[in-house]
Amino acid sequence: MKQTLQCPVGSTRAKAAWMVVIAGGLMDVVWAVLLNYSRGLTVLWPSVFALASMTVSYLLYVLSLKLLPAGTAYTVFTGIGTAGTGLIGILFLDEPAGGWRIFFIGILLLGIVGLKLASGCETVQPKGGELI
């Protein structure tokens, strides 16, 4: 039997869940950049911090699933990671900043915002767990 929770987009629960997804997406950027500095996990401290931030990133994503639909949360989570890593690469890591690349990062960001605005936080209560 499915048990459904509905919370309006502006509710405290919805805001908390979205903040958790955003924090997880930002941690996704952190580990991706640190992985670059770890040189294939051969440099100790960047490797340690990359693996730690990767763990935190996915734990935040999993926590958000208590209120948000998995598909939407994962798309926003990975989109923030993808766009953020691309922007960090352009701004700080001397990666090429072609017009098409910037255009498509912008499209990705618009898609993330659109998904967030189009989503409420109706979901099925997880097995054996309390909702946030």
TrEMBL record:
<dbReference type="InterPro" id="IPR000390">
    <property type="entry name" value="Small_drug/metabolite_transptr"/>
</dbReference>
<keyword id="KW-1133">Transmembrane helix</keyword>
<keyword id="KW-0812">Transmembrane</keyword>
<dbReference type="InterPro" id="IPR045324">
    <property type="entry name" value="Small_multidrug_res"/>
</dbReference>
<dbReference type="InterPro" id="IPR037185">
    <property type="entry name" value="EmrE-like"/>
</dbReference>
<keyword id="KW-0472">Membrane</keyword>
<dbReference type="GO" id="GO:0022857">
    <property type="term" value="F:transmembrane transporter activity"/>
</dbReference>
<keyword id="KW-0813">Transport</keyword>
<dbReference type="GO" id="GO:0005886">
    <property type="term" value="C:plasma membrane"/>
</dbReference>
<feature type="transmembrane region" description="Helical">
    <location>
        <begin position="16"/>
        <end position="37"/>
    </location>
</feature>
<comment type="similarity">
    <text>Belongs to the drug/metabolite transporter (DMT) superfamily. Small multidrug resistance (SMR) (TC 2.A.7.1) family.</text>
</comment>
<dbReference type="Pfam" id="PF00893">
    <property type="entry name" value="Multi_Drug_Res"/>
</dbReference>
<feature type="transmembrane region" description="Helical">
    <location>
        <begin position="43"/>
        <end position="61"/>
    </location>
</feature>
<feature type="transmembrane region" description="Helical">
    <location>
        <begin position="99"/>
        <end position="118"/>
    </location>
</feature>
<protein>
    <submittedName>
        <fullName>Multidrug efflux SMR transporter</fullName>
    </submittedName>
</protein>
<feature type="transmembrane region" description="Helical">
    <location>
        <begin position="73"/>
        <end position="93"/>
    </location>
</feature>
<keyword id="KW-1003">Cell membrane</keyword>
